[in-house]
């Protein structure tokens, strides 16, 4: 992201009488954080479909140019806003078993979807087929979060002797997080714990570690 400030943006907005000329000059991470917070506030009020860069910039007291220097389109702005309140863990929980790890990971995701990140991600999921920018943003999210974390869970299970990972593909790693996201898209939050348990026991475990349990 750019480290430029919003002091030179003629379009910097805000409520009447509180334009950017009357605000302290903001740079770098501080301005980024205010724009992301404004994005989440707009999403909570208007939803993804009605979200506009102009309204986000006005709420943040910044100019449209400040926003576009940092994010190429609405989808990437919303994705970063979601990430700002839904930090990606470096490693998934380690409970000592494949089932326990999968449950802990999916429960953590479900809890995050019940927070401020939920409306942002639901908007992106709902418009998945409307444009290439949404598809790209969600593919990035899938690769960086769900798939990577499940791969780590599978690696640990392999080391414990719970499964053979030689035949496990990326599509198999995507199944559990994708099912959770689909339920969230259709039904919203909170995701019931019985749904999380069903995804793990009825789908993920038979797929990743087939055989008698």
UniProtKB/TrEMBL annotation:
Keyword field: DNA-binding, Transcription, Transcription regulation
Residue range(s) of DNA binding per entry: 52-71
Record keyword Repeat present: no
Matches recorded under InterPro entries: Homeodomain-like_sf (IPR009057), HTH-type_TetR-like_transc_reg (IPR050109), HTH_TetR (IPR001647), Tet_transcr_reg_TetR-rel_C_sf (IPR036271), TetR_C (IPR011075)
Domain HTH tetR-type: start-end pairs: 29-89
Region Disordered: start-end pairs: 1-30
Domain of life: Bacteria
GO molecular function annotation: DNA-binding transcription factor activity; transcription cis-regulatory region binding
The protein's name in its UniProt record: Bacterial regulatory protein
High-level lineage: Bacteria, Bacillati, Actinomycetota, Actinomycetes, Pseudonocardiales
């Amino acid at each position: 992201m750019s480290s430029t400030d919003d002091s030179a943006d003629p379009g910097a907005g805000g409520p009447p009488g509180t334009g950017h000329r009357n605000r302290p000059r903001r740079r770098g991470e501080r301005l980024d954080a205010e724009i992301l917070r404004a994005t989440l506030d707009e999403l909570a009020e208007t939803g993804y479909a009605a979200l506009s860069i102009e309204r986000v910039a006005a709420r943040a007291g910044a100019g449209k140019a400040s926003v576009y220097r940092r994010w190429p389109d609405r989808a990437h702005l919303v994705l970063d806003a979601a990430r700002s309140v839904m930090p990606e863990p470096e490693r998934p929980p380690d409970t000592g078993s494949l089932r326990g790890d999968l449950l802990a990971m999916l429960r953590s995701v479900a809890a995050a979807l019940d927070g401020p990140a939920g409306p942002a991600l639901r908007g992106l999921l709902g418009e998945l087929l409307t444009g290439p920018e949404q598809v790209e943003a969600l593919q990035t999210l899938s690769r960086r979060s769900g798939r990577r974390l499940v791969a780590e869970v599978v690696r640990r299970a392999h080391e414990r002797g719970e499964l053979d990972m030689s035949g496990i593909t990326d599509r198999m790693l995507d199944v559990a997080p994708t099912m959770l996201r689909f339920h969230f898209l259709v039904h919203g939050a909170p995701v019931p714990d019985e749904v999380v348990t069903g995804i793990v026991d009825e789908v993920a475990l038979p797929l990743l570690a087939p055989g008698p349990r």
